[in-house]
Amino acid sequence: MSSQLTQIQPLSQPVDIGDEVATFSPEVEEEIDAHLAKYPVRRSAILPLMFIVQRERGYLDPPGVAYLANRLGLRYTDIWEVATFYSMINTSPVGKYHIQVCRTLSCKIRGAQKVTEHCSHKLGIKPGETTADGRFTLSEVECLGSCGTAPMFQINFDYHEELTPEKIDQILSSLP
Predict the structure, then answer these.
(1) What domain range is 167 assigned to?
(2) Is residue 20 situated within a structural domain?
(3) What is the CATH number of the domain that holds 117?
(4) Which residues neighbour 17 within 8 Å (Cβ) at sequence distance 6 or greater?
(5) 12: CB partners within 8 A, 6+ apart
């Protein structure tokens, strides 16, 4: 039995989903163009471009998704599938500090639930919520790939491992 791979052809016309499409400054457009030039297959630029849109808009909102679909010649859902797969892509607003607690097996066995409970108690929010001042968002996520140093969380893009309540308190109090 032979299998064939079908190459996805880019759309020749921009996607019209009837919603607002994000716009960016000329400097950001240049940065996006520079990334696109690195990839012979435009689809391969999805993640780096998502990070740019997220940086500029705070999260990957529907207008940002529509923008990427148009720039890459893909469907809206193609972009959304990737965005919702990766925990580092935010599809809703988050606080200045996004605390993502790993909840998968290694971390769970070594106390991830206690980490979540401690953060929740300390910040006065449940997973999926943001503090009233917009400073912290608490989330539980799938494996962050630091199983040997569990339990752990990441704050924005910084890993914090072998967590204890005392260590969590120290980390949170050190944030500006």
Answers:
(1) 97-174
(2) no
(3) 3.40.30.10
(4) 66, 69, 76
(5) 73
What's the predicted TM-score (pTM) here? 0.79
Answer yes or no: are the C-beta atoms of 125 and 134 closer than 8 Å: no
- In the numeric block, which tokens belong to residue 132? 């009233």
What CATH number has the domain bearing residue 48? 1.10.10
How many other CB atoms are there within 10 angstroms of residue 166's CB atom? 9
Strands of 158-160's sheet, edge to edge? 136-141, 97-102, 153-155, 158-160
Q: What is the pLDDT of residues 54-113, one digit of tens each?
A: 999 999 999 999 999 999 999 999 999 999 999 899 999 999 999 999 999 999 999 999
pLDDT tens for 138-170 read: 999 999 999 999 999 999 999 999 999 999 999
User: Which segments of 10-146 does DSSP mark as H helices, in order?
Assistant: 26-38, 46-57, 62-72, 76-85, 105-109, 112-123
Nearest to 21 by CA among 64, 53, 71, 79: 64
What are the tokens at 110?
A: 């070594």
Q: Is 88 left (phi over 0), alpha (psi -120 to 50) or beta?
A: alpha
Residues forming beta bridges with residue 136, ordered by sequence position: 97
